Amino acid sequence: MALVKVDFEVGSDGVAVITMCNPPVNALAIPIIKGLKDRFDEAARRNDVKAIVLTGKGGRFSGGFDISVMQKVHQTGDITLVPDVSVELVVNTIEDSKKPVVAAVEGLALGGGLELAMGCHARVAAPRTQLGLPELTLGIIPGFGGTQRLPRLVGLHKAVEMMLSSKPIMSEEGKKLGLVDAIVSSEELLKVSRLWALEIGERRKPWIRSLHRTDKLGSLSEARDVLRTARQHVKKIAPHMPQQQACIDVIEHGVVHGGYSGVLREAEVFKQLVISDTSKGLINVFFAQRAISKVPGVTDIGLKPRKVKKAAVIGGGLMGSGIATALIVSNIHVILKEINSEYLLKGIKTIEANVRGLVTRGRLTKQKADGALSLLKGVLDYKEFKDVDMVIEAVIEKISLKQAIFSDLEKFCPPHCILATNTSTIDLNIVGEKTSSQDRIVGAHFFSPAHIMPLLEIVRTDKTSAQLILDLMMVGKIIKKSPVVVGNCTGFAVNRTFFPYSQGAHLLVNLGVDVFRIDRLISNFGLPMGPFQLQDLSGYGVAMAVGKEFAGAFPDRTFRSPLLDLLIKSGRNGKNNGKGYYIYEKGSRPKPDLSVLPIVEESRRLCNIMPGGKPISVTDQEIVEMILFPIVNEACRVLEEGVVIRASDLDIASVLGMSFPNYRGGLVCWADLVGADHVYTSLKKWAQLYGNFYKPSRYLEERAAKGIPLSAPASSIPKSKARL
C-alpha cells in the first residue's frame, strides 16, 4: 500500500514545493490534512523559503476530502472526526500566509482539492484539468470555503451553476472565467508555478486573497436576484435535497456579511449536513456502488477477465434490441438472431431507433452511431455463432423454448462462450437443465429499457464458474452498467424484493384507499411514479404473469386482487392502448381516468376485505409505509437467504434497477434510518388486521428485537445457509 504523506522540498530558488501523496487521487485524508498544516508551518518558519507551491503527486492535484471520514461519522455519530480545514488550514495557514502560495494543478482538483487551490494566491493549471465542487451529490455543501471563494473568482451566476449541478469544468474554461491564472503544459507546470510564486513575492504579479474579492459579486440586489432564481429552480427540481437550499443560503450569507463570516457559516452548516439523513443516504450509495466490484470467490482468487469481442443476442424484442444496442455502442460486435425475417427486420429497426435516440439526447455522436450500427448483423440461424464469446438469450418467458435454445447453443458455440439468459423470473437450473454445460450458464438480467437503465443483475447458480462471473462483470462495466452478482431464486434479488410493491398497493385499494392518492404519495416519497402508473406503463399482461409466478413461489404471502383481471376484461391495458388508470394523450402528462373508479369499486366488492364494509382510515405516512415496508420485509428474506453478498448490494440495486431515491440511501439503508423496530411493529400490527401479506420475517423480527441494523453483516445474527 502506498504511503500517505505530504512531501516537502525546498529548491535553490527558495521555493518550497509541498506535494500531497495519497494515490490514486490524493484524497484529503486526515494524515494529509495534518501533513499540510505541518508542512506549511515549516515553510513559514524557514528563512530559506521565499514562496510556496502546492501540488499533488502522480499527475493529479486532489480529488477532494476523504469520504470515508464522513462514513465513520455516520457509523459513530462523532462529528469531531471532521477536522477544521476551512479556517485553520485554508484561511489562517494558506490564504493568510506571509509567503505567496501558488497551486500547481493537474489532472483534477475537485471538492476540497479545488477549495485548497482557491485558497492559494494563484492557480496555474495543466491543459484539460477538471475543476469542480461536486459535494452536493453527497448531501453536503463545500466545507473548506468553496461557497465563498468560487463566486468571488468566477462570478455569482457561474459559481451557483457549478455548485448546484456538481459538474466540473475544464481548466481552459476556468482560465476564461478567472478561476485559473495560467495554463501551461504538464512538463512546464512546476517550473512556471515556482516562477509565478516568486514573482508574487517580488510584487511583479498580484498577491490576491480570493476571499477578500468582491468585484465579481455584483450589487446586493443583483446577487439576490440570482440567488432567488436559483432557489425557485431548486425547489422545483430537488425538493428532497436540503443541501441545495443550504448552499444558496450560505452563499447569500457571505455576500451580505462578508467572505470570512460566510466561511464560518459554511463550516457550521457543513457539519450539520454531514450528519443529515440525506448525506447518510447518498454516501451509502457512493460506497455501495464501489462495493459491488468485490465478489468473494470471484474477484479475489487471481482470475483475469477474458475479453468479449463478439456477442450474440437471441430475440429482437424490446429487451433483446435494448441489450444489442448497449453492446454495439460499446464497440462489441453483435449477431442478432430471430426466428423469421419479419421479426428480424423489426428488431434491427428498433436498434436503429435506439441508437438515433442516443444521438438526439447528445449521448452519442453521429459518427459513433454509424460505427455502432456497422457492428450489427442479423441472422436466422446459428451459423455465425461459431466464434462468439457470449450469447444473451432474450426470448419470451417460456421454459421449453429457453431449454431448446440452450441445447442448440451448446452445439454451435465455442467451449469458452458465455451462455447467458435475460430471464427475470425463471430458475437458471431449469433453463440449463437439458445441457451438459451448466458451469457456463449465467443470468444476465437487464432492466428495461436495457440500453438506458444502469443495472445489470448477474445471476449465478451453484455450478456457474467464477471465470464466467468475472467475464460478465467486465462486460457490464464496458457497456456502462453496474453489475451486481446475485443468487438464483424466483425473481432473483431486485424483482424478488419488489414483488410486494404492486401487491401492497392493490391490497390498500381493496381496503378502500384511493388509487390516485397512493400514486401521488409514492411519487412524493421520491419514486418516479406510483405503482398503478407503473402497471399502466409495463402493461397488465406483464403484471399478471409476474404476479402468477410469485404467487406460485410464495403462496403464503401473496395477495390476490381481482382488479387487473377486471381492467383487462373492460378493454384496458394501460399505456399500450391508452386506457388504464390514467388517460394517455400524445404531448401531455397522464391524467387520472375517473371512469376507472367503478371498476375499482367492483374489485372491492369481489374482494370484500374492507372492515365492516367501510374504507379504512389511514394517514399519508401510513400509506407509504404499508406499501414500502412489505418490500423491506422481503429484502430481509433475501438477505437471510444470502441471495445478495451484502446489504449494500440491495441498496444500489434498488436505486439503479427500481429508481428508489438515491438520497434515501437505497432500500435497506432507508429502512435502517426509519428503524427496524418501527418496521417490525408496524408490519406485526397490519398482519393482525389484514393478514399474512404483512407478516414480519424472522430476520426482521430478530434484528428488531436485538437492536441490530438490517444492513449489519450476517455474523450479527444466527447463521443461515447462504445461497451464493
UniProtKB/TrEMBL annotation:
<dbReference type="GO" id="GO:0003857">
    <property type="term" value="F:(3S)-3-hydroxyacyl-CoA dehydrogenase (NAD+) activity"/>
</dbReference>
<feature type="domain" description="3-hydroxyacyl-CoA dehydrogenase C-terminal">
    <location>
        <begin position="623"/>
        <end position="705"/>
    </location>
</feature>
<comment type="similarity">
    <text>Belongs to the enoyl-CoA hydratase/isomerase family.</text>
</comment>
<dbReference type="InterPro" id="IPR006180">
    <property type="entry name" value="3-OHacyl-CoA_DH_CS"/>
</dbReference>
<dbReference type="InterPro" id="IPR001753">
    <property type="entry name" value="Enoyl-CoA_hydra/iso"/>
</dbReference>
<keyword id="KW-0443">Lipid metabolism</keyword>
<comment type="similarity">
    <text>In the central section; belongs to the 3-hydroxyacyl-CoA dehydrogenase family.</text>
</comment>
<comment type="subunit">
    <text>Monomer.</text>
</comment>
<dbReference type="GO" id="GO:0006635">
    <property type="term" value="P:fatty acid beta-oxidation"/>
</dbReference>
<dbReference type="GO" id="GO:0004165">
    <property type="term" value="F:delta(3)-delta(2)-enoyl-CoA isomerase activity"/>
</dbReference>
<dbReference type="InterPro" id="IPR008927">
    <property type="entry name" value="6-PGluconate_DH-like_C_sf"/>
</dbReference>
<keyword id="KW-0456">Lyase</keyword>
<dbReference type="GO" id="GO:0008692">
    <property type="term" value="F:3-hydroxybutyryl-CoA epimerase activity"/>
</dbReference>
<feature type="domain" description="3-hydroxyacyl-CoA dehydrogenase C-terminal">
    <location>
        <begin position="491"/>
        <end position="584"/>
    </location>
</feature>
<keyword id="KW-0413">Isomerase</keyword>
<dbReference type="InterPro" id="IPR029045">
    <property type="entry name" value="ClpP/crotonase-like_dom_sf"/>
</dbReference>
<dbReference type="InterPro" id="IPR018376">
    <property type="entry name" value="Enoyl-CoA_hyd/isom_CS"/>
</dbReference>
<protein>
    <submittedName>
        <fullName>Peroxisomal fatty acid beta-oxidation multifunctional protein AIM1</fullName>
    </submittedName>
</protein>
<keyword id="KW-0560">Oxidoreductase</keyword>
<keyword id="KW-0576">Peroxisome</keyword>
<keyword id="KW-0520">NAD</keyword>
<feature type="domain" description="3-hydroxyacyl-CoA dehydrogenase NAD binding">
    <location>
        <begin position="310"/>
        <end position="488"/>
    </location>
</feature>
<dbReference type="Pfam" id="PF02737">
    <property type="entry name" value="3HCDH_N"/>
</dbReference>
<dbReference type="GO" id="GO:0070403">
    <property type="term" value="F:NAD+ binding"/>
</dbReference>
<dbReference type="InterPro" id="IPR006108">
    <property type="entry name" value="3HC_DH_C"/>
</dbReference>
<dbReference type="InterPro" id="IPR036291">
    <property type="entry name" value="NAD(P)-bd_dom_sf"/>
</dbReference>
<dbReference type="GO" id="GO:0005777">
    <property type="term" value="C:peroxisome"/>
</dbReference>
<dbReference type="Pfam" id="PF00378">
    <property type="entry name" value="ECH_1"/>
</dbReference>
<dbReference type="Pfam" id="PF00725">
    <property type="entry name" value="3HCDH"/>
</dbReference>
<keyword id="KW-0276">Fatty acid metabolism</keyword>
<dbReference type="GO" id="GO:0004300">
    <property type="term" value="F:enoyl-CoA hydratase activity"/>
</dbReference>
<keyword id="KW-0511">Multifunctional enzyme</keyword>
<dbReference type="InterPro" id="IPR006176">
    <property type="entry name" value="3-OHacyl-CoA_DH_NAD-bd"/>
</dbReference>
<comment type="pathway">
    <text>Lipid metabolism; fatty acid beta-oxidation.</text>
</comment>
